[in-house]
Amino acid sequence: MTGRRFANGRVPVNGRVQQMVGNRGAIRLSSLPMGKRIHRILVVVGLIACAPLAPLPAPAAEQDAINPPPSAHEWQALAKLPDWTGVWTPVISDQIAQEKTNRPPWTPQVAKQIDHMYAEEAAGRPFPVIDHCFPTGMPSWMLITHNAFEVLFNPGRVTILGEGDGNRLRRIYTDGRPHPADPDPSFHGHSVGHWEQDTLVVDTVALLPQAYLAVNEAVGVPNNGDMHIVERLHLQGPDTLLDDLEITANKVLSKPWRTTRKYYRQRAQKYDIIEGVCTQGSFTEAVDKNGNAIFSPIKFHNGVPVGSDSK
After folding, report:
1. Most buried residue among 60, 61, 132, 269 by CB atoms closer than 10 A?
2. Per-residue pLDDT at 269 exceeds 90
3. Is 62 part of a structural domain of the chain?
């Protein structure tokens, strides 16, 4: 048999075979009788041939990257958290007051864009910050929303579900996991949180650069990358939820911006969250030529709806 040998007469084997044979992976052939040498060589060759079929054990980090079923103790622990049930509606008057008294520290270049947007809004030509089918995203959702949301507690996670375009969903992981090393950016980012007594502290990264930092529905700019948000959500009295935000966005802000938003708890069923579909308002109910119920695009003339396409 020909092949590479070490100076000490041992035959090298690859890492996979080394795992399979242990310390016998390096074999001293010269110390064996000829018959046993041939037998040992055939065994090693067989192991090498079969090695690709034997899966390596997954790294420990991969084995641990699961969402284990919650224990009874973890479900019971939820009862110790503050009561955030019900539906939360934003305090619009507070949003307006914050916009007037706590202006974000825009960079000089961005401040010019913002002033132009305010002028356009005053002239009746508002910029459509959220007039599209993309999610409002963070932090604009919490800053300027006019719609209700609810907060759900599960072991290891807090979920915020928002009414509106169907894309308002935040998952805040409270199971101790860190942010991913290489997260996929999204409109709402990746959020991890922990409880400090009755305050939920949330850290959010991995936001798309296209996600807006807006102060109202017509004034705001994309964050342009590397935005970082820290929130402290807590009750103020029995039915007011506060969200204290610290927003770092070095591409558009000259320094971190701290602001607070208020939400009132609503328990009446009329405030229950309903379905919202982004483009449904651009369609009308119709029937096609086969008698099927459909949505048909609304036709406009000079901005005035004049009918729809049907049959």
Report:
1. 132
2. yes
3. no
